[in-house]
């Protein structure tokens, strides 16, 4: 295929991926009550599963009800004429992207697959399943762990009793969206490292050598996407560090396999 033919092929894959996101977004738009009342504003309610879990842990540790929440001390408002309608549209598109993520990956794979050798295509068939599983695991982690911790800390934080926490709906949903999507993408770290190892840009030795620097970067990222308390940062840092160690193992396996392949070829 010529360069223009490749661009044409890419265009159709992008059109299909965009269409899937829009269709899923339309479904999310129609299911407004479920998307907003159950999912979006779920972390705002005291009966959210995360808060119930913290309450049980508090009682098991003999801390009475210090981690139990009966009501979160803030309200959500809309101060723009088209504020709620705009939030409805963009939240639906975000939900559409999350729902259609496996299909978007499939279109990406379909574009790249013709350039692969038969054995490469064979070993990359699980790419969509693995990437989707990691993304959804990260998104759930962001929704059930990061978002409640952030909302609980920031929603109850006051510099003075004279100031009442009444958050704009754009700000509330931006925090929710950032937590979910950021964690979903961060959990793709092993896949990224796999491809970097395949092209020879990363080795296990490199990752081990710079592990301490990676720890600092992870803590900085944790501080950015979580409330400024040590407990929340540790909760976020632990799974990311586990993914980093998994990436070392993955790159080691990739390098070993490449060496075996080259020896067999010779």
UniProtKB/TrEMBL annotation:
Coiled coil: none annotated. Part of the twin-arginine translocation (Tat) system that transports large folded proteins containing a characteristic twin-arginine motif in their signal peptide across membranes. The keyword Cell membrane applies. Keywords: Cell membrane, Membrane, Protein transport, Translocation, Transmembrane, Transmembrane helix, Transport. It is a multi-pass membrane protein. InterPro entries: TatC (IPR002033). It comes from the Bacteria. It is found in: Cell membrane; Membrane. The keyword Transport applies. Its main location: membrane. It comes from Aquimarina hainanensis. It holds the Pfam family TatC. Forms a complex with TatA. This is Sec-independent protein translocase protein TatC. The chain crosses the membrane at residues 12-31, 87-106, 127-146, 172-197, 209-225, 231-250. Belongs to the TatC family.
């Amino acid at each position: 295929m010529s360069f223009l033919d490749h661009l044409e092929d890419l265009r159709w894959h992008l059109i299909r991926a965009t269409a899937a996101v829009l269709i899923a977004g339309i479904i999310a738009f129609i299911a407004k009550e479920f998307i907003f009342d159950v999912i979006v504003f779920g972390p705002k309610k005291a009966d959210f599963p995360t808060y119930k879990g913290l309450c049980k842990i508090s009682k098991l540790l003999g801390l009475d009800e210090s981690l139990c929440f009966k009501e979160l001390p803030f309200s959500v408002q809309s101060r723009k004429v088209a504020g709620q309608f705009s939030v409805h549209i963009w939240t639906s598109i975000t939900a559409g992207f999350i729902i259609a993520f496996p299909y978007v990956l499939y279109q990406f794979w379909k574009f790249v697959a013709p350039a692969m050798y038969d054995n490469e295509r064979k070993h990359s068939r699980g790419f969509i399943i693995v990437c989707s599983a990691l993304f959804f695991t990260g998104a759930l982690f962001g929704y059930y762990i990061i978002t409640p911790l952030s909302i609980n800390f920031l929603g109850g934080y006051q510099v003075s009793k004279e100031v009442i926490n009444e958050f704009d709906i754009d700000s509330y949903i931006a925090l929710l969206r950032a937590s979910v999507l950021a964690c979903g993408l961060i959990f793709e770290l092993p896949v990224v490292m796999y491809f970097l190892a395949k092209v020879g840009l990363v080795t296990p030795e490199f990752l081990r050598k710079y592990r301490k620097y990676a720890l600092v970067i992870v803590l900085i990222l944790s501080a950015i996407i979580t409330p400024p308390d040590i407990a929340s940062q540790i909760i976020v840092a632990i799974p990311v560090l586990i993914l980093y160690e998994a990436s070392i193992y993955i790159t080691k396996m990739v390098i070993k396999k490449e060496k075996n392949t080259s020896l067999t070829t010779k």
